[in-house]
């Protein structure tokens, strides 16, 4: 059996209606699989005006808007219409990518048909509750996730550091690495554009500290703004550029009155914006890989990040950036100060990060997922024969 023989039913909680790193990776995976001759059918909530066109065939599943976060939707059920579509498509492997009710029903559907199930884990869902004063719920969420992940034949995680967390949480013990790649045509130092930067109201001189990501509290907006406030109090010359949109934008703007908010940037525009920074500050602990970290490294920028599952697998501390304990505001401010006042250090660590980014080829990375599908199908067939 080879990649072209695969028939994959992929379940996503958000395939294309709001743009994020996880669904960008899923769409790229589907594009690669289709290019290799595989058949893929995607099942996800849909909206009238999605953030971008879907890659491959997309089947809408019933859903509802999440209270207080209406831009996101909750998949509700594996309806009769969707089940009929699944039966017609007749997959030989099922892939789930979010721990919602539809994914759980899809696992049951697959089990009744003796089909293998792969789960890709894209974020640390249990950590989100820290940002809404509900940390007490983390153990309950972990147990809820464990019940699903243990029903899957295998998991794929974006980094070895996150895979180790999943093992320690006893989520599953068959875990492969599905890393992330970076588009070198879009993200490279040559995209730096000082005219564009000046057009955003940013000067040539003081270093520009960048934030890149969706503007939601779980991205560490409080830590970012507190550390920047420390720099201001210490009298360190700097500028701040924020790339992204989200429901917490007004809160973030109030905390960073002197920052330049350039909104959502995509494609070549995003590459230009990132390369026009001088360093990236990524304090989030919810990412499992850190796409924004890799994109900044590819643009030759040093990265200051939380010592957490995402950036920890990418940034080499004191070589291509700095890794700081989550929430350590003064330590974040200390290392930001060092980069803001030492041009040579920024250049040295940025060059090391760019060199490291060359290791991430999308085709090779996505073939590892295809290889995992094939392995699970072989193992399931062998168990069936043995019985």
Mean pLDDT: 91
CATH architecture of the largest domain: 3-Layer(aba) Sandwich
Q: Give helix % range.
A: 40-55%
Kindly report the CATH topology of the largest domain.
Rossmann fold
Radius of gyration: 21 Å
String of helices and strands: EHEEEEHEHEHEHEHEHEHEHEHEEHHH
Instruction: Give the tally of β-strands.
Output: 15
Please describe the biggest sheet, giving its number of strands, its sense, and whether it closes into a barrel. 7 strands, parallel
Structural class, from secondary structure content?
alpha/beta
The helix tally amounts to 13
**Count of discrete domains:** 2
As a percent range, the share of strand residues is 15-25%
Flag low-confidence runs.
none
Q: Give the overall silhouette.
A: elongated
Strand order of the largest sheet: 3-2-1-6-7-8-9
State the distance separating the first and last CA atoms: 21 Å
Specify the CATH class of the largest domain: Alpha Beta
Under CATH, the homologous superfamily of the largest domain reads Glycogen Phosphorylase B
């Amino acid at each position: 059996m080879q990649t072209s023989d695969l028939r994959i039913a992929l379940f996503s909680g958000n395939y294309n209606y709001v743009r994020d790193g996880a669904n960008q990776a899923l769409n790229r995976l589907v594009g690669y699989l289709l290019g290799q001759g595989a058949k893929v059918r995607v099942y996800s909530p849909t909206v009238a005006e999605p953030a971008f066109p879907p890659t491959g065939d997309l089947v809408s599943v019933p859903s509802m808007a999440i209270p207080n976060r209406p831009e996101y939707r909750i998949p509700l059920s594996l309806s009769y219409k969707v089940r009929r579509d699944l039966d017609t498509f007749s997959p030989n492997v099922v892939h789930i990518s979010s721990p919602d009710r539809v994914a759980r029903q899809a696992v049951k559907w697959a089990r009744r048909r003796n089909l293998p199930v792969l789960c890709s884990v894209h974020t640390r869902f249990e950590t989100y509750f820290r940002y809404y004063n509900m940390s007490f719920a983390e153990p309950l969420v972990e147990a809820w996730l464990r019940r699903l992940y243990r029903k899957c034949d295998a998991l794929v995680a974006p980094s070895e550091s996150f895979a180790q967390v999943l093992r320690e949480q006893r989520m599953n013990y068959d875990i492969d690495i599905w890393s992330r790649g970076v588009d070198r045509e879009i993200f490279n130092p040559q995209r730096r554009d000082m005219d564009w930067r000046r057009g955003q109201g940013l000067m040539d001189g003081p270093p520009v500290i960048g934030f890149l990501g969706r503007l939601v509290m779980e991205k560490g907006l409080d830590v970012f703004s507190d550390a920047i406030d420390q720099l201001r109090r210490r009298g360190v010359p700097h500028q701040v550029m924020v790339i992204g949109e989200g429901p917490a934008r007004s809160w973030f703007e109030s905390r960073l009155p002197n920052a330049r908010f350039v909104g959502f940037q995509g494609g070549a525009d995003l590459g230009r914006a990132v390369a026009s920074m001088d360093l990236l500050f990524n304090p989030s602990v919810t990412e499992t890989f850190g796409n924004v970290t890799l994109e900044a490294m590819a643009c030759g920028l040093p990265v200051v990040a939380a010592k957490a599952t995402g950036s920890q697998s990418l940034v080499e501390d004191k070589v291509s950036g700095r890794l700081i304990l989550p929430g350590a505001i003064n330590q974040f401010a200390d290392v930001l100060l060092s980069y803001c006042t030492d041009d040579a250090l920024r250049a040295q660590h940025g060059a090391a990060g760019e060199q490291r980014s060359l290791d991430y080829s999308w085709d090779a990375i996505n073939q590892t997922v295809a290889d995992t599908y094939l392995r699970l199908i072989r193992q399931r067939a062998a168990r069936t024969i043995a019985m």
